[in-house]
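Listing S7. Sequence submitted for prediction.
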Amino acid sequence: MSSPSERLNAEQASLFARLALGHVTREYPNKMDHVLEGPQDVRGPRDLHPIFYGSFDWHSCVHGYWTLATVLRRFPAIPEAAEIRALFDEAFTDGKVAAETAYLARPSARGFERPYGWGWLLKLQAELLAHDAPWAATLTPLACAFADRFRAFLPKAAYPIRTGVHSSTAFALALASDYARAAGDTELLELFAATARGWYLADADAQAWEPSSDDFLSPTLVEAECLRRVLPRDEFDPWLAEFLPHAARRRPASLFAPAVVSDRTDGKIVHLDGLNLSRAWCWRELAPHLPEAARPAAMAAASEHLAASLPHVAGDYMGEHWLASFALLALTAGEDG
């Protein structure tokens, strides 16, 4: 069982809201994913992306909005609730969504934010669909554009990308599968499942050579979490037992030891706080699917990883502009089915 401090409470929700409100409309500093086709394309973040121009980069802004939407739904009485609703009403307009969608039509934007931003945009839309508000309906053209990108890309993706950073295909599919379910898009969910089977189903006895120095995801655990979300339990649980056959003995040891973060002002090193939080998320989601003897080790690992990095969600902007989203995944794991 998790202690109360390891589940999202109103105080944490309010903190995460304040952090996200402080960065989703902060335009600079900004690390843009933007290809210049000519001098006319020398434009600033807000001009190019009238919704997602803040938070240091486009994808962090997207999951900053997801953080705000999620804490608002779970704790609608937090002091920041009115400010969140006003921001969403101002941000999610037909004109701004049309501009974000038009950006994708640029020839040089074919690979824009693939696959990490794709997954997070659809995860945001899945959350907005749970709100009694017009935001999801307004954002639908952009969500459909990214869903279509998955449809076009995945049949050509012969191999997964097995990293612990933005290029992870497992993480993108895990997030996007929530959208496919929320939107009732069974065809898209079937595409995710078929793709994930082809990429990962033959994997067994994971060696877990991780972490790398700037991972914020566990390549091993996020692969398992991806399959958990797209496979039926009677197919997934036997696979997981073969994939992590020594989990009851806390092996591979690397998966059970929180990463050490030596410099939280370094934008890459602080990724390791994200690794700890995302491992906590994965362990919590996976624990009920492991053989019974392995479940205590998984839950203990989740607690240890959470304790290592949850206190550091706020502090330096290099982590502050994104870590709350990963803390929120961990603190709410298993609560939405």
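Caption to Listing S7: primary sequence and predicted structure tokens for the chain studied. The chain has one domain: 4-331. The chain has a mean pLDDT of 96.
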